[in-house]
Amino acid sequence: MSNFDYKFLITLTLHAMKKFAGLVFAALLGGFFSVMIFSKIQPYDRGFTSPSGLPPLEGPPATLARYMTKLPTTLPDFTLVAEMTVNAVVHIRTEYERKSSVYDDFFGMDPFREFFFGPRQRAPQRPIQASGSGVIISENGYIVTNNHVVAEADLIEVTLNDNRIYEAVIIGRDPTTDLALIKIEESGLPYLEFGDSDEVRVGEWVLAVGNPFNLTSTVTAGIVSAKGRNINILGGGTAIESFIQTDAAVNRGNSGGALVNIQGDLIGVNAAIASNTGSFTGYSFAIPSNIAKKVMIDLMEFGEVQHGLLGVHMTELNSREARERGLPSHRGAFVASV
Fold first, then answer.
1. Which pLDDT tens digit goes with each residue over 237-253?
2. What is the rounded distance in angstroms from the CA atom of residue 202 to the CA atom of residue 195?
3. Catalytic residue among 131, 133, 174, 178
4. Which residues contact 108 (CB under 8 A, 6 or more apart)?
């Protein structure tokens, strides 16, 4: 190889090395300035408060995804609340005598047969049995349940969660709220205290405790779906309906059971479900505890409920009615008649 070829290769190699060294130097210089600028930036804080238990927002802007991955992902623990409530909820079995109508008595007679063979001997009819739930509200045996669970019952049998069985008597009933107060003769019983149903918020967790399908105390969980529901199941007139709506599973036998919050307070008495099949399909309704508490106190003291009547018929306003009546607002109640 000639001297010219050696000189060309050496020149080309030196040129490449200078170019590579320049790139490395530029990269190092850029990194140095980036570090210097970043160290002068103040922590990122625009009034956002980090979730409880998480570190404060510092450094570069934090993304929502970063914090969402650290937020709690588990449901509340209901074990303690369940233990506090199941022993205060009872199973109620009732018996009713079959009542024959005048129509049955008249058309069931056969005068010719009775003339020749004597009166017909009718087979004894078995009583009708039904069941529901109840909530112990005092240590000496007072129990709140639904009126439709015990109305006209000839026998009321209460079974505690520990399988003790008692016969109960009716202290009083109030069909206008579908509530009843019964009592068993016992003391030292576990019981639930009334909570403030006015403080219940839509979206909060609740537990429904009852005896569906004649099982022992059963607990289901859900949230409050709505408040102040009127579903017209008590016949209108002077009936009082302002149900707490929940998606906690409630089935036959839950009537009269407890609706409790996560503190274990009784905030409602389960009364009905919205269903075309008779089984739970997504919504259930409970009588608010503030109504139940007032009814129970009246039944204990007076044997009947004292209701206050305004003497007016009110309807809930909407934008159409407000427009037709020339009203300035579409919210509130409208006095339709006096």
1. 666 778 899 999 888 88
2. 16
3. 178
4. 100
pLDDT digits over 286-338, tens only? Answer: 999 999 999 999 999 988 888 777 788 777 788 888 888 888 887 888 888 89
* Bridge partner residues of 128 (DSSP): 96
Q: Which of 289, 77, 327 is nearest to 192 (CA)?
A: 289
From residue 284, give the alpha-carbon distance in Å to each of 94, 192, 211.
23, 21, 15
**In the chain, which ranges are continuous DSSP H helix?**
3-39, 64-68, 79-85, 102-107, 111-117, 147-150, 289-302, 319-325
DSSP 76: P
Measured between alpha carbons, how far is 42 from 131 in angstroms, rounded to an integer?
68
Whether 255 is a known active-site residue: answer yes
Given the residues 148, 225, 284, 289, select the one marked as catalytic: 148
List 131, 133, 255, 289, catalytic entry: 255
Active site residue 178: yes
Q: Is there a catalytic annotation at residue 307?
A: no
DSSP SS3 for 229: strand
What are the structure tokens assigned to 211, written together? Answer: 């005896």
Nearest to 66 by CA among 74, 75, 57: 57
